[in-house]
Amino acid sequence: MMNELEQALVEKYDIHFEDEHLLLEALTQANYLNEHPEEKGDDYQRLEFLGDAVMQQSTAVYLFKRYPDWDEGRLTELRISMVQTRSFAALSRELHLDRYIRLGRGEELSGARQRDSLLEDIWEAFIGALFLDQGQAVVMDFLDKILFAKIDEGFFDQFVDYKSKLQEYLQQDGPVVIKYDKLDEKTLANNDQIFTVEVAVNDEKLAIGKGKSTKSAEKDAARTAYQQLVQTK
């Protein structure tokens, strides 16, 4: 199965590990080694430590260079949404790392293979292994393809609570009344429903959002309003 992963990395991302043991280590949990004392090697935890630092630095450098006009607050906000558990777990699944994790029997039975916290650790360990094996330039090129490209797709918006952010922003100078009103509800030809919601503060209209549920439409309206307010600040 490791050969399948290595082949996929080469074909899709042009990544070839010189030291295959690093890749194996990044995918090995401690309980697996406890149950297989005949196998030599370490678990992923040290590589996870390194990969966490590499991800933080790589993302910060990328955002710093891409957005020269952004202040620290905006840079930090986007970095936090990118470098967090659900984001890393999603990337692990996209790379199919979840298929190749070497787990102990107990962890396997408990469903750890699909646990976001473990997939986050495995992602960081993989990045740590890639950094040691190929260096920072290859890591940045890989992240450009699988992580940074998702900024323009709005991928990281799902990890941000824009309703709370909008409320905090609007209440900086005191209490305000924030209302979300449903303006429309349509059923499309494929039976999907599209909701349209407007957000207002103290009866002043701020933005309109759309989504497949009232909740998602409210979040879309809050996101649009918050981003517009921050950009015009």
From TrEMBL:
Q: Which GO terms describe its cellular component?
A: cytoplasm
PROSITE patterns from the xrefs? DS_RBD (PS50137), RNASE_3_1 (PS00517), RNASE_3_2 (PS50142)
One example of the protein's molecular function in GO is: metal ion binding
Give the principal location in a single coarse category.
cytoplasm
Q: Which residues form the DRBM domain?
A: 161-231
Instruction: List localization entries.
Output: Cytoplasm
Q: Which reaction does it catalyse?
A: Endonucleolytic cleavage to 5'-phosphomonoester
User: Residues in domain RNase III?
Assistant: 6-135
- Write out the residues that bind Mg(2+): 48, 121, 124
Q: What is its EC number?
A: 3.1.26.3
Keyword set for this entry? Cytoplasm, Endonuclease, Hydrolase, Magnesium, Metal-binding, mRNA processing, Nuclease, RNA-binding, rRNA processing, rRNA-binding, tRNA processing
- One GO-annotated biological process of the protein: regulation of gene expression
Protein name, as recorded: Ribonuclease 3
Natural source organism: Weissella minor
Q: Which gene encodes it?
A: rnc
